[in-house]
Amino acid sequence: MASGLHDSQFTNPVIRWIDQRMPVFTMVQKEYGTFPTPRNFNYLWNFGALAMVNLVIMIVTGVVLAMNYTPHVTMAFDSVERIMRDVHFGWLLRYAHANGASMFFMVVYVHIWRGMYYGSFKAPRELLWMLGVVIFLLMMATAFMGYVLPWGQMSFWGATVITNLFSAIPLVGNTIVTFLWGGFSVDNPTLNRFFSLHYLLPFMIVGVVFLHIAALHITGSNNPLGIEPNGPQDTLPFHPYYTIKDSVGIVVYLMVFAVLVFFIPNYLGHADNYIPANPMATPTHIVPEWYFLPYYAILRAVPNKLGGVALMGGSILVLFVLPWLDTSKVRSMRFRPITRVLFFLWTINFFVLLSMGGKPAEQPYVLISQICTVIYFAYFLVVLPLMGRLERPLPLPESIAIAVLGKRATLGAGPIPGGATAKPMEKA
Amino acid sequence: MRLLKAFALATTLLVAGPALAADEGHGTELPSGNFSFDGVFGTFDRASAQRGFQVYKEVCSNCHSMRLMSYRNLLDIGLSEAQVRDIAATVQIPDGPNDEGAMFERAGRVSDHFRRPFANDQAARSANGGALPPDLSVITKAREGGADYVHALLTGYSDPPAGVTIMEGLHYNRWFPGHQIAMAPPLSDGQVQYTDGTATSVDQMAHDVATFLTWAAEPELEVRRAMGVKILIFLAILAGLAYATKRKVWANAH
Known about the structure:
The complex is a heterodimer of chains A (428) and B (254).
Chain A: H1 13-21, H2 24-33, E1 36-38, H3 47-66, H4 76-85, H5 90-117, H6 126-148, H7 153-164, H8 173-181, H9 188-219, E2 235-237, H10 238-263, H11 293-301, H12 305-317, H13 322-325, H14 337-357, H15 365-390, H16 400-405
Antiparallel strand pairs in A: 1-2
Helix pairs in contact in A: 3-5, 3-9, 3-10, 4-5, 5-6, 5-10, 6-7, 6-9, 11-12, 11-14, 11-15, 14-15
Chain B: H1 2-22, H2 46-58, H3 81-89, E1 92-95, E2 104-107, H4 121-127, H5 139-142, H6 146-154, E3 171-172, E4 180-181, H7 202-217, H8 221-250
Antiparallel strand pairs in B: 1-2, 3-4
Helix pairs in contact in B: 2-7, 6-7
């Protein structure tokens, strides 16, 4: 072997030649072929892969949509309808993109929920978790700006309401809002910059996703038991075990997606957004898309504008410090009998907030929102710090293999396939 | 399995959330228009859509534009090319400038968009007591209730209930938000002459025009649903295969 070349294990001469000079095949083999993965994942561990698939779908449909879209206040609405009517399969592209955003949030909400339930955010995965929160924030910004692009009534008024939130910042608030708008109201410059950023941010998401996965492949995945794998008997190679398990999830996900796109494409949207934007007429109720409703409820629960904005921001930012708020050494809620129940209550509370965000800002909805907001934060700021000290967790299993295989695990090698160092995947 | 169930529940809640959140209750529920395109497998009743176009052309189009529609689109509801060409030719479309730099009018072509009744919104308002007749291209997507709402609105005129005063120039309509609508009752029995002999009751015309407007708003509806059925069947089979493969791969692993 010539010096300086990578020591490739591949035998195919072409693959070997490339791999010696740039070991991408070795990397894929290591990270997605033999990568040792806990053998006890349940289907909730599909959702990372689903989010990845969803991101790709969004970028592919989005790039093609952008080829047919006109970011100008007098033409944006009509150009979207032209896509629906005159572009080949334009309706499919647009409905897939619009509902893809909803699917993305559903998938990511489950992904985050799974991380919270099984304590995936705890040491040594804090940075992995925080990168995830960054992705979530970027997603929210991208989705918000994307919703503005069709320039319907809800686009325009949603953009007006949300950008106006920045005016709550003392001293510089109004300057920031003018800067965001590119003028003194939401208008053509706003639409132009939102289009530009809506195209840019997804690629920043791709970048952070890369970091998210890079961090994941240092610490390895958490698992439903929340205990670290302790040797080859506790893991399986990623391929074929989890490639096939993820495939099952992806097909089911596509079926849910297809039901939305082909049969109820406007179910999750608002009728008002099929009315062209009109700065002179405010819709009766300005409501954001469903995935923002919990935060919208928190915003409106506080009578003070700055307070509302601060709490709304805080409801996401608190996730950054979650690894330090939860003081329990036990990761998985399976072994935390009290906190587990409280976490389920918190989950229900999240859905109540979601429902309240869609209601008009009047009683009793405001009061319910206020109670739910207190519960939302109390879980993070009171329950988790205290429970780590007060709660007596259930005994943890000795190892993943024993928990999964029972006695078979202790009977020596046997027919247990896998093990991180077992045969590499077949070269194709 | 328990987890899967919890998950299905969570997903349902997520999907149902906005629906739960959206009920703003206008009191009573819209009556169903019993349309051919209701439900998952519904398609457009072509004859009804054609009659609906006739109602639009003879009644609605005096005030309401459909600027996203072209005459060529009418081929999709079963009109022949000759019929569409004749329909387009009956209108004068502003065009130009010509080689001398002057604007001119010419007979419509199938590629033209539906001619708009007013030159601009100001003209439309001025002719309608200050109210702007909305463009009808996507009206069934732009109103909660869609076709049912359009049908209910067109048949919802009556004298105001006792104690309700209506502002001058407005009309009582049971289904309009606020119940005071600027549009005078547009339909009356026998107003248009259907060529296929269908009786022209207000209800029938409202039903037909709602069908036409739904087709105009979602011309892809039939193709979309048909494709959805095929894709779901394909995915169901693929899901079975993927799951069987997963079982086989995992047979000895847990």
